Amino acid sequence: MGHTIQYYDYPENTDKKKVEQELANYVAKRCFQEGGHLSKIRWIDSEPCANDDEAHEKIERLDKGWYDCIAVKYYDAYNVPETEKIKALRAANTQAYCKYKELASAFHFANAKAEYIGCKNCGSKIARKYLRRNFCPVCNADLRPETTLNRIATLKEKADKSSDTLKAELTKQAMKAKNVRWKIKIEFHE
């Protein structure tokens, strides 16, 4: 078949030998035709990463290639107590993304008065009654005006910033709660 990479998540106080045996059995059963072998897992027992994303990046940085199996610690920001601040940040994040998605996916020319819409990219004139989306049917360029595209970009920035603020607060709470887990990457050939 091919080269496979999978990620797993275990509590900090897990039995490492049991995890290695469990994953090795999984690989052996899944890849019995190829000889199913799992390399020994390198357990990097250092300071935990701030969150799951940083753990993923650290694994990629430490990866030596060629079916290298690695485990690193990280603070689990997804299983923290739901404080009032987190609830407010989550609501603000949801609202920001809803506004962005609503404007980005809306059909801009639904209430346009002009009979034809011009494409600035290829110069085509498209009858409004035939348009069903915001893109030129000839060259696939976005037909919406620059001001609308700027508003969409601004809403996307606000939504991303809101998401980063929420992630930072979740990480802060996870560090406070000392909620540490192992992120394990395994590679095998199937």
3D structure, described in words:
- This protein is of the alpha+beta class and 190 residues long.
- Helices cover 42% and strands 22% of the residues.
- It has four helices and six strands.
- It has helices at 16-30, 52-62, 84-105, 146-177, and strands at 3-11, 41-49, 69-75, 116-118, 125-127, 180-189.
- It has a four-stranded mixed β-sheet with strand order 1-6-3-2, with helices on both faces. Strands 4-5 form a two-stranded antiparallel ribbon.
- A hairpin with a 6-residue loop joins β4 and β5 (125-127).
- The chain is elongated.
Question: How is this structure best summarized?
Answer:
By secondary structure, the protein is α+β, with helices and mostly antiparallel strands. It is built from four helices and six strands.
* Alpha plus pi helix count: 4
Q: What global shape is seen?
A: elongated
Portion of residues in beta strands equals 15-25%
* Rg measurement, Å: 24 Å
Largest sheet, in brief, is: 4 strands, mixed
Spans of 5+ residues with little confidence (pLDDT < 50)?
none
Helix coverage percent: 40-55%
User: How many beta strands in the DSSP annotation?
Assistant: 6
Strand order of the largest sheet: 1-6-3-2
Instruction: Give helix and strand order, one letter per element, not per position.
Output: EHEHEHEEHE
Main structural class = alpha+beta
